[in-house]
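Figure 2 data, in text form.
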Amino acid sequence: KRMYLCICNAVSEERVIEAIESGCGSFNEVSKATGLCAECGQCAFKARKECERLLCKYRKHSKKSSSVSAA
C-alpha cells in the first residue's frame, strides 16, 4: 500500500525511504532530492513529521548496514 506524503509532486513514503537509504540525512536533503513540500505547502506539517520519523527509523538501519559491510 503506497502512502503519499506530497500529492503535488507524487512523493510517496517509498520514495522518501529510498532517498534516506541513498544518503539523505535531513528533511531538507530529502525535500531537495524528492520534491517533498516543494509546491503548495499544504502537506508541510504532516509530511515533515512523517519524514522525521522515517529518518530516525531508516538512518539507523542504513548506519548499521554500512558499519557491518565496512567491517
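Caption note: The two ends are 35 Å apart (CA to CA).
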